[in-house]
Amino acid sequence: MEPAVSFENVEVDYDGKPILTGVGFNVLPGEIVGLVGASGSGKTTLLRHLIGLNQPAQGEIRIFGERLNQLPHASRQHLRQRIGVLFQGGALFSSLTVFENVALPLNERGLEDSWIQPMVCLALSLAGLAPETAPLMPSELSGGMVTRVALARCLVIEPELLLLDEPTSGLDPIVSDAFIAVVLNLQKNLGITVLMISHDLRALKRLCHRVIIVGEGRLLAEGRIDNLEQSRDPRIRAFFRLDEETNP
Fold first, then answer.
1. What mean pLDDT is reported for the chain?
2. pLDDT score for 247
3. Running DSSP on this structure, what letter comes out for residue 100?
4. Which CATH class, in words, describes the domain spanning 1-82+161-248?
5. Reduced to 3 states, what is the DSSP secondary structure of residue 27?
6. Regarding predicted confidence, which is higher, 224 or 38?
7. Helix runs in 89-172, H state only
8. Residues near 26 by beta carbon (within 8 Å), at least 6 away in sequence
9. Higher pLDDT, 14 or 56
10. What is the 3-state secondary structure (H, E, C) of the chain?
11. Do residues 186 and 126 touch, judged by C-beta distance below 8 A?
12. Phi/psi at 193 (5° precision)
C-alpha cells in the first residue's frame, strides 16, 4: 500500500543551521497518526513543510506518491485541494459567519451558490454541528464549536488527508471527547487519513493507531502507544509521564 504521506531522510534548517535531520516516516491511507514531542521540537515545522509552505534542505516529502518539492506550482495547488488543514485555535475569520467561514474554500474555487449551500450543510453535519449554527458569528461560539467549525471548513472540500494542529488544546474533557468521536467517525465511515500534532495524551490514546515522537532534532521513536509506554528510554518515559506515575 502506497503511503498517503512519506518523509524520506528530510533535513530542515533555518539560516543554514540544522533544526531536524534524518526524519523519515510514513502515514498509510486510513491511519490516524500522532506527531508528538516537546514544544519547539519541530512538529509544526514538519507540518509547514508537508503543506508546501517551506522546502526541506535535503530529502523528499511525498503526498499520495507525489514528490512535493518537485511539483510545478499548478500541480502543487491541485494536490493541496486534497488536504484539509485545521490550524491551532481554529483560525476562523471573525467578520464572517459560520456559514461564510465554511464556504470560503468553495467560493475561492468559484463554485455556484446552488452547490455551496448543500455542501456547507453536509460539512457542518459531519463536524457534529446543527444547521442553526450557520448564521452565528465566531464570537458567539464556544471553544469546542470553533474547533468543529474549523473542522467543517476542512471537510467541505472532501479531503483525503486531514492535518490537525493541536485540535483539542484548551478544550475541557467533555468537549474534547466529542471532537474525538467526530474524528473517529470520519475515519471509520469515510476512510480519511489523519496526521495530528498534539500534546493531549488522552486524545492521542483514543485516536491514534501510531505516534511519532520528535526531539533533539530528529525522530526519537514511533509505534503504538501501548508499546512505547514500555520503553526504558527516559526521553520516551518523560513524554508519557511514566516516571511521574510510578514515582510520585
1. 88
2. 40
3. H
4. alpha beta
5. strand
6. 224
7. 98-108, 113-126, 143-155
8. 3, 5, 6, 7
9. 56
10. CCCCEEEEEEEEEECCEEEEEEEEEEECCCCEEEEECCCCCCHHHHHHHHCCCCCCCEEEEEECCEEHHHCCHHHHHHHHCCEEEECCCCCCCCCCCHHHHHHHHHHHCCCCHHHHHHHHHHHHHHCCCCHHHCCCCHHHCCHHHHHHHHHHHHHCCCCCEEEEECCCCCCCHHHHHHHHHHHHHHHHHHCCEEEEECCCHHHHHHHCCEEEEEECCEEEEEECHHHHCCCCCHHHHHHHCHHHHHCC
11. yes
12. -90, 135
| The pLDDT of residue 37 | 84
Confidence of residue 215 (pLDDT cuts 50, 70, 90): confident
What's the distance, CA 10 to chain centroid?
A: 19
Q: What angle do CA 223, 229, 235 make, to 5 degrees?
A: 90
Q: What is the pLDDT of residue 116?
A: 93
Whether 50 contacts 5, CB under 8 Å:
yes
The string of pLDDT tens digits covering residues 115-156 is: 999 999 999 999 989 999 999 999 999 988 999 999 999 999
The pLDDT assigned to 246 comes to 42
Single-letter residue type at 12: V
- Look up residue 120 and give its three cell numbers: 456547507
pLDDT category at 10 given cuts 50, 70, 90 is very high
- Domain spans of the chain? 1-82+161-248, 92-158
